[in-house]
Specification:
Layout: H1 14-27, E1 32-36, H2 52-57, E2 65-69, E3 73-77, H3 82-85, E4 95-98, H4 104-109, E5 117-120, H5 127-138, E6 143-146, H6 151-155, E7 167-169, H7 172-175, H8 179-192, E8 197-200, H9 203-210, E9 212-214, E10 226-230, E11 235-238, H10 246-252, E12 256-259, H11 264-269, E13 275-277, H12 284-290, E14 294-296, H13 300-306, H14 310-337, H15 345-357, E15 364-365, E16 370-373, E17 397-402, E18 404-406, E19 409-410, E20 413-418, H16 428-443, E21 447-448, H17 453-466, E22 476-478, E23 487-492, E24 505-508, E25 511-514, E26 518-521, E27 524-530, E28 541-546, H18 564-581, H19 587-596
GO cellular component, one term: cytoplasm
Keywords: Hydrolase, Manganese, Metal-binding
Organism: alpha proteobacterium IMCC14465
């Protein structure tokens, strides 16, 4: 199994570990210390050696930050995790603070006094984060101090070794563009802006630029590394030279120089010219090193990577057909077996992974499967473990959010189904239908160029708002090409300021969650494409083409709530699912799929 189900959070150790940290803080004359979830690469996934927040607090989610003071400690989490964390955190030692309601700055302002010293590891906080925090604390004369030695690293005696896995070339037949052409393209942009170099601090951008993939972290196939791209299109890659095989060196070519990470700091101190740093993803550490050489700006790799080329789009389509067939096999099995009450959340995860493995193309999951039945489905980022595992029961809603990593594409799909045998909870059908209406509104949207995710977010929420409902997560995130399942800069949310552009892949996943009863989410991936022209239309329009192929449970739909256009969209979508996937399925699953996708 790729996915494990042990709960190794160890919240019972939080009190003793906090005591050790406070002793280290006291010895250094510090009044507080910030512990983010991120490592120095600031990605969603971190290797075991970088799980400082989990080691200290027991929290293992993908986003969070702890603030440790002499007599208080708080864990700041967003709405995805506040409910779940209560089950796994020592709440006597740590208070859980909803970060959307209480900012770290305001919490600190109420608890620190002028002259107090708050420390942070500059390798683990972005330039933008430190600027924001410093501006707030300076007003109260609270000292924000960068420290060279992270005290957690000093007290974490059994800390795992850094990853040292394989790094492989990502063939042009999947990438769609040679690395040297990408480098020349970005270098030309640097030259046009009178910049001498670009510091690339996001490992997925290094992977995209060099057309390489790795296995340093779970679920995202990149190697943890930094790189410098110069205006002459040469690259200095900071990676252990022992990890570069002859085959990989040949793939990289003469324009890529390998330098060990231990030599990175002196290299950067001696570099000439102006170096572009992206403030939202670059650790403050690099700005401290480069100082007057720093130019703050966007990493152009991010936007180039987000706009998939035709080869990558074709690969995404193939990956979703393959993945859709596996998912339909799973949903057919679930429909037959779950009403017995003998199928657990872990059983479902296990069988779904088996279905994807049987494609013969699965490289990894794109994230740990969310498999939530009944009340567990209301926990937005629920991860089943041996302790939380429960059996699916007739009449319950079951939410499964999953995806796969394939050489030609990355998938992410959510379906919510009714387990047959009893009536669903009150409100479930109305809520599901409103979620579906929002999903269809976004999927069928037409919008002018330069429209951003904020503008589109409301389309998916409007049907829920009309019923007095909403959901506390974004509507859509970007998705990579055999890279990160959560990719920027594009997103469809209340903070999605990047205009959507052709080739961008985004998710469409409105939802509704009734605490203690059920959760609903319907998610497809779709990519931005020029919309069909309309007679007398005055502006070029963009739209979406759906990638995901899987039935939407009609048992949870109230057809009278759908407009004729919404009904037509669903019927056309289901027709395409059947026609596309039938050649890959066995007879009994074809029969089930045809019935599941019959027109409303």
């Amino acid at each position: 199994m790729l996915q494990k189900f042990e709960n190794n959070a160890q919240p019972d150790l939080a009190a003793s570990r906090l005591a050790l940290l406070r002793a280290a803080m006291d010895a250094a004359g510090l009044d507080g210390f910030i512990v983010p979830r991120e490592d120095e690469f600031m990605g969603e996934y971190v290797p075991a050696c970088g799980e400082r927040l989990k080691w200290l607090t027991g929290f293992g989610g993908s986003a969070g930050v702890a603030v440790i003071l002499k007599d208080k400690a708080a864990l700041f989490l967003d709405g995805r995790y506040t409910l779940e964390a209560e089950n796994y955190i020592d709440t006597e030692s740590l208070s859980i603070v909803p970060i959307m309601q209480v900012s770290i700055q305001s919490w600190l302002s109420d608890r620190l006094k002028p002259g107090d010293k708050l420390a942070y590891d500059p390798r683990l906080h972005s330039i933008a984060q430190i600027e924001k925090l410093s501006t707030s604390l300076d007003k109260q004369d609270i000292k924000l101090i960068a420290i060279e030695d992270n005290p957690i690293d000093l007290i974490w005696t059994d800390r795992p070794a850094p990853p040292n896995g394989d790094i492989n070339a990502h063939a042009n037949s999947y990438a769609g563009q040679a690395s040297i052409d990408k480098r020349k393209d970005i270098a030309a942009q640097l030259t046009s802006e009178n910049h001498d170099a670009l510091l690339i601090t996001q490992p997925e951008n290094v992977a995209w630029l060099l057309n390489i993939r790795g296995d340093d972290v779970p679920r995202t196939p990149f190697a943890l590394s930094f790189a410098i791209l110069k205006a002459d299109a040469s690259v200095t890659w900071f990676i252990n030279p022992d990890r570069i095989s002859e085959t990989l060196q040949t793939h990289l070519g003469d324009g890529v120089t390998i330098i060990a990470p231990s030599d990175m700091t002196p290299y950067l101190k001696n570099i000439d010219g102006k170096v572009v740093l992206e403030p939202s993803h670059t650790p403050q550490y690099f700005m401290d090193i480069l100082q007057e050489k720093t130019v703050l700006g966007e990493d152009p790799c991010s936007l180039k990577k987000a706009c998939k080329n035709p080869v990558e789009i074709e690969g995404a389509k193939k990956a979703h057909i393959r993945d859709g067939a596996a998912l339909c096999k799973f949903l057919h099995w679930l429909d037959i077996t779950a009403p017995s009450g003998h199928i657990s959340e872990i059983d479902a995860v296990t069988f779904l992974e088996q279905c994807r493995r049987e494609t013969g193309a699965l490289k990894d999951l794109s994230f740990d499967t969310i498999s939530g039945s009944g009340p567990n489905g209301a926990i937005v980022h629920y991860r089943v473990n041996n302790e939380s595992n429960r059996h699916l029961q007739p009449g319950e809603l079951y939410l499964v959010d999953s995806g796969g990593q394939y050489l030609d594409g990355t998938t992410d799909v959510t379906r919510t189904v009714l387990i047959d045998g009893a009536s669903p909870p009150a409100m479930a059908i109305e809520a599901f239908t409103r979620v579906l209406k929002g999903h269809i509104a976004l999927a069928s949207a037409r919008f002018p160029e330069k429209t951003d995710g904020v503008a589109l977010d409301a389309l998916a929420r409007a049907p829920l708002w009309a019923g007095g409902l909403d959901f506390d997560h974004g509507t859509g995130h970007g998705v990579g090409s055999y890279l990160s399942v959560h990719e920027g800069p594009q997103r469809i949310s209340k903070g999605g300021t990047q205009p959507l552009m052709p080739g961008m892949i985004v998710s469409n996943e409105p939802g509704y969650y009734q605490n203690g009863e059920f959760g609903i989410r319907i998610e497809n991936l779709q990519f931005v494409t020029p919309a069909t022209e309309i007679n007398a239309g005055q502006r070029p329009m963009l739209g979406f083409e759906v990638l995901t192929l899987a039935p939407i449970d009609k048992k949870l739909i109230n057809p009278t709530m759908l407009t004729p256009d919404e009904r037509d969209w669903l019927n056309a979508y289901h027709k395409n699912v059947v026609e596309t996937l039938t050649p890959l399925l066995e007879t009994d699953t074809i029969t089930w799929l045809t019935q599941s996708c019959a027109p409303l």
